[in-house]
Design a protein that fits this description.
The complex is a heterodimer of chains A (119) and B (111). Chain A is an all-beta fold and 119 residues long. The mean pLDDT of chain A is 91. In chain A, 36% of the residues are buried. Chain B has 111 residues and is mainly beta. In chain B, 0% of the residues lie in helices and 53% in strands. In chain B, strands 2, 4, 5, 9, 10 and 11 form a six-stranded mixed β-sheet that branches. Chain B starts with a strand and ends with a strand. Classes of the chains: A mainly beta (119), B mainly beta (111). At the A-B interface, strand 5, strand 9, strand 11 and strand 12 of A face strand 5 and strand 9 of B.
């Protein structure tokens, strides 16, 4: 079965540079999430998109922005990179299941992540 | 206080042991519950969704206690390959598309 695809898998940048991470959700999934995970930490929610509209915002710095395109892929743009931005960045996708018009269930599936190193 | 709380461990157990993890959540309106497994430097992988009636998948059993607002994961006959961090994830009280993560429980299965 198709999984979530992320690119690149590894990225090395200098301080103050910019980076763009890409995510291709599982086909037909309607929601995309971005997470940042530092060493020894649980994934921290950054931002999510439902049907190409931003649906929720977490601890995403103002230096970061994201969008979801018409083909449902999403990009996380990171500017003025700092040493503390070094982390694993995961994208996840889910499909909301409705029963009689009421949201009843969804499961979230993660991509393999992009390891960003800022030097 | 975090919305989802887990004992970080580590739980160090011998092969063949039975081990149980608990996870508590703060909002009684939560709708969906999951256990994920995460290996070092890898993505979280869905281990089990947790249903109201409880569910079992081979050596793994998940239970939901809505009254006490906790979910549990029981692993029987532990294997070396079970060594990982187990993340408890809850969603759906204010925004069905938002997921709340526990900090994870680390399991080390020893020979």
């Amino acid at each position: 079965a198709a999984g979530v695809i992320q690119s690149p898998r590894h990225l090395i940048k200098e301080k103050r540079e910019t980076a763009t991470l890409k995510c291709y959700p599982i086909p037909r999934h309607d929601t995309v999430y971005w997470y940042q995970q530092g060493p020894g930490q649980d994934p921290q929610f950054l931002i999510s998109f439902y049907e190409k509209m931003q649906s929720d915002k977490g601890s995403i710095p103002d230096r970061f922005s994201a969008q979801q395109f018409s083909d449902y892929h999403s990009e996380l743009n990171m500017s003025s990179l700092e040493l503390g931005d070094s982390a694993l960045y995961f994208c996840a996708s889910s499909l909301e299941v409705k029963y009689r018009g009421v949201s009843s269930y969804n499961e979230q599936f993660f991509g393999p992540g992009t390891r960003l190193t800022v030097l | 206080r975090k919305e989802v709380e887990q004992d970080p461990g580590p739980f160090n157990v011998p092969e063949g042991a039975t081990v149980a993890f608990n996870c508590t959540y703060s909002n009684s309106a939560s709708q969906s519950f999951f256990w994920y497994r995460q290996d070092c430097r890898k993505e979280p992988k869905l281990l089990m969704s947790v249903y109201s009636s409880g569910n079992e998948d081979g050596r793994f059993t998940a239970q939901l206690n809505r009254a006490s607002q906790y979910i549990s994961l029981l692993i029987r006959d532990s294997k070396l390959s079970d060594s990982a961090t187990y993340l408890c994830v809850v969603n759906g009280w204010s925004n069905f598309n938002k997921f709340y993560f526990g900090s994870g429980t680390k399991l080390n299965v020893k020979p």
